[in-house]
């Protein structure tokens, strides 16, 4: 397991920015905050062109990611007390955001948010949780189908274009499998589709 400081060093390299230790993180900080055990408890990445949140940093308490290009959040965001996502490209919040504590502060303005609608998201975690639960109940009424995306280059890009009409020319490689839900109307019938986006590497290991 890399230490928190090693993770910070890797992250700094990946985004090509210097990350400094700071006493306090605020909306335009670029740096990190340590506790007395040298654990990173706060991270600010203002305007860092970040399009994907590294999964390793999700044990943090305070995460400030204002003015980036995030269009997805990892599902594992459990421990946060403050999550600042002002000015990103998020059009949906993962259902796992409902697992955050009700007291977690979420700042989500200036995102092209569709699910949940912005009016719900700004009410906070418990409103988001209620909304995704009611959505799940509603969804259960429709038939569920599965689609598996395997093959050469461009799987994730294809899924993103279909679901979100976005394209990222620096798409990072998919680790494992990423399942995206899509609700689509075909011949006037609502259909639920789970799209399984496989990482190229993993599928090769799994099929000797
Ligand atoms: N020129 C061009 N580049 C593409 C196209 N589709 C994807 N790419 C680029 O090719 C790279 C890999 O695309 P991904 O969509 O991540 O490919 P993937 O099949 O999901 O790859 P793994 O997750 O590693 O299996 C990214 O840099 C994309 O921007 C395309 O149609 N044309
Ligand atoms: Mg991929």
Can you walk through the features of this model?
The structure is a single chain. The protein contains five helices and nine strands, in the order αββββββααβαββα. The chain folds into two domains: 4-138, Leucine-rich repeat, LRR (right-handed beta-alpha superhelix) (Alpha-Beta Horseshoe), CATH 3.80.10.10; 142-206, P-loop containing nucleotide triphosphate hydrolases (Rossmann fold, 3-Layer(aba) Sandwich). The protein has 208 residues and is α/β, with parallel strands linked by helices. 23% of the residues lie in helices and 23% in strands. The structure holds guanosine-5'-triphosphate and magnesium ion.
Bound molecules: guanosine-5'-triphosphate, magnesium ion
Architecture (CATH level 2) name of the largest domain: Alpha-Beta Horseshoe
Which CATH C-level class of the largest domain is it?
Alpha Beta
**Strand order, sheet with most strands:** 1-2-3-4-5-6
- The fraction of residues in strands falls at 15-25%
CA radius of gyration is 18 Å
Short description:
With 208 residues, the chain is an alpha/beta fold. Helices cover 23% and strands 23% of the residues. The chain is built from 5 helices and 9 strands, in the order αββββββααβαββα.
Write out key terms for the chains shown.
alpha/beta, Leucine-rich repeat, LRR (right-handed beta-alpha superhelix), Rossmann fold, 5 helices, 23% helix, binds guanosine-5'-triphosphate, binds magnesium ion
Write the layout of secondary structure elements.
Elements (H helix, E strand, L loop, with lengths): L3 H12 L4 E2 L8 E5 L5 E6 L16 E3 L17 E3 L20 E3 L10 H4 L3 H15 L4 E6 L5 H10 L12 E10 L2 E10 L1 H7 L2
Parallel strand pairs: 1-2, 3-4, 4-5, 5-6, 7-9
Antiparallel strand pairs: 2-3, 8-9
């Amino acid at each position: 397991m890399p230490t928190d400081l090693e993770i910070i060093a890797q992250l700094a390299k990946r985004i090509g920015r210097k990350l400094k230790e700071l006493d306090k993180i605020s909306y335009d900080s670029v740096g990190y905050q340590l506790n007395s055990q040298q654990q990173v408890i706060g991270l600010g990445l203002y305007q860092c062109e970040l399009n994907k949140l590294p999964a390793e940093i999700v044990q943090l308490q305070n995460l400030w990611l204002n003015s980036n290009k995030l269009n997805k959040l990892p599902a594992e965001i459990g421990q946060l007390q403050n999550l600042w996502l002002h000015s990103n490209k998020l059009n949906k919040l993962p259902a796992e955001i409902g697992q955050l504590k009700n007291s977690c502060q979420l700042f989500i303005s200036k995102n092209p948010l569709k699910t949940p609608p912005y009016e719900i998201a700004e009410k906070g975690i418990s409103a988001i949780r209620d909304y995704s639960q009611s959505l799940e109940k509603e969804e259960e009424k429709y038939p569920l189908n599965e689609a598996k995306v395997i093959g050469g280059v461009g799987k994730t890009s294809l899924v993103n274009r279909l679901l979100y009409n976005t394209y990222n020319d620096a798409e990072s490689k998919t680790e494992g499998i990423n399942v995206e839900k899509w609700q689509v109307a075909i011949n006037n019938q609502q259909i639920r589709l789970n799209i399984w986006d496989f990482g190229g590497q993993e599928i090769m290991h799994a099929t000797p």
